[in-house]
Amino acid sequence: MRSVGLDLSARKICYCEVAGGQVVTRTTVRSLQELQPLLGLGTAPAHVAFEACREGWVTDSVLREWGHEPLMIDTTRVKQIGIAQHGRKNDRIDAEVIARAVERGGIPLAHVLSPHRRQLRLELGNRRALVETRAQYVVMIRGIIRARGQSVGGCATNNLSKRLDDAQLDTETRELVEPLRSLLEPLENQIGRTEMRIEELCRTEPIIQYLSTVSGVGLIVAAAFVSVVDDAKRFRRSHQVEAYLGLVPAEHSSVHRRIGAITKEGNGYVRALLVQSAWRILQLKTDDPLKEWAEQVSKRRGHRIAVIALARRLAGVLWAMWRDGRVYDPALVGRTRRQSPSQTPQVVLTALALAARRRNLRRRVTVRVRS
Q1: 3-state secondary structure of 71
Q2: Residues 95, 7: contact at Cβ < 8 Å?
Q3: Nearest Cα to 247, choosing from 258, 256, 238?
Q4: DSSP state letter for 99
Q5: 186 and 255 share one domain
Q6: Both 74 and 149 in a single domain?
Q7: Based on the structure, what is the number of domains in the chain?
Q8: For 258, phi and psi rounded to 5 degrees?
Q9: Could you report the per-residue pLDDT of 331-352, keeping only the tens digit for each?
């Protein structure tokens, strides 16, 4: 098969084909469709490598339709194939380096998400952008009010607009915050619609409902975890999942063993959501083995370290639940050997899953009514 390297960007695509260690074809085009004379249907099959990027998923799908074998490169390990070697890096050089790496083998591959999980990831990205935008507006509104020597009082983020109606603010302050306040209601409506679409996607994913039975883990956290991991069978042990999400400590042990902060590799959004869930678990009023374990860590190492440790363990617990196809069972938390799903009655497991689903549906209904 032919050995081809692509360097993808928003404005152009650099193409390079190598055979016998020599560059045989090199070109630059503006879109993937312009590569049909070289890679379209009917052309000789090729191994086509490219770095993981925004265009990666659609590029993978198109190349498969054209009859080629796409190879998406893990961007965290591109130095292994020689990219940026000797300080030389541009699109044409990168395409050639990738093509030569394809010919000699040893490409560090990235995982390609399944189509359904791609859609889930995109919807979650929309929600994240909307929620972060709302948070920025709320912070700015509160800042303006404080700068004017007034107060609106504490309230949930999605209730600020109503609180402003009842607050004792002077006319000038209201005029200052009105441009931002007028945007909050449309944002709330869009967040509600996006969450409804996410819920529809989650209905076809029973495992998401199962994962949301963990205390402190809601539908959004479970959906984000599934959309990133994609396939539980990709990992053999929970530690691999924790490392994939950047929740394991960095280690330097060439001479002396040194353990540092967590690596923060992988998807930062899921990592942040797991940390938020860890905080919620520690604030639970009920007993939970995960909470008890984290409290013991907190006594030895401090509260912040305990939260990160709990987020790491939570990732492992979610992966194990997914692997075994079961809902959260506190009796199994902390056990070292793999448990059979039949040890907990299936009636109990189903009841827990349905209860979690009802909780999430009630929350979605609240959003719809508000919007």
Answers
A1: strand
A2: yes
A3: 238
A4: H
A5: no
A6: no
A7: 3
A8: -130, 125
A9: 777 554 444 444 445 455 555 5
